[in-house]
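Usage

Read records sequentially. Each one opens with the input sequence:
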Amino acid sequence: MLMEVKNQLKVSLLAIKYAVMREMLNKVTFITNIIFMILNNASFIIQWLILFSLKDNVGGYSFKQVMLLWGIASATYGFAHFFFKKAFSLSDTINNGKLDVYLVQPKNVLLSAICTDVDVSAIGDMLYGYIMLFVYGFNISSFLLFTLFVICGGLIITCVSVILNSLSFWFQKSDIIADTGNSLMTNIATYPEGIFKGVVKILLFTLIPVGIANYLPVKIISEFNIYLFVIVIGVTILFIMLAFIIFNKGLKKYSSSNLMIARI
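and closes with the structure output:
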């Protein structure tokens, strides 16, 4: 079992490596995409500087905590879109019969399908996240926790996308639901938790797990809490399991398009 997991991870990392090598054929474009993504994210600091010049906190967050929230949101988004880019267009792969090429391989179909390409600009998102960590206040413990939560948050974002996109096995046009869910996960993540109330706040810790991927990590890094830490790890594992279960159940309903596609 462990050997199978090791082999699958090795294959997935090789796929990512070759995807990066393809992108690096044009080094100028490669570097430019990264730099401009960092600058794009940094531009939003101005709006927060203006807001915090008017009041001491926003939604219970200080300026440094908002920067930490932005760092986690940016880095988790970057992690998910760099390592699992195809998870966010999985419905297209399913609807157009493009899973055929992965079904004939002796490797996990889901991992093979979502790890075949990378988003270069996502590197800029990850780098920006660590820049914000330095703005918040760098030390070894915060760096380790931040890195762990980036991985957990990235996996949660990816799994939510896989679950929503997997609805395409059963329903037509479910890609609209997936796109909406992905947008909500991305857009809400950069706003302080305190501005959301009632039912909306409950949704952010359940159906739209922004609270687990972003808000709890901010609290834990600010003041470590073992119970919240366990919740983040546990929910991450839960979403990973749900993503594989739902995708594999849907895969049984998959109809081949008999496309002759060579994967290079």
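Summary fields computed downstream for this record:
- The first helix runs from residue 2 to 23.
- Residues 260-264 have pLDDT under 50 and may be disordered.
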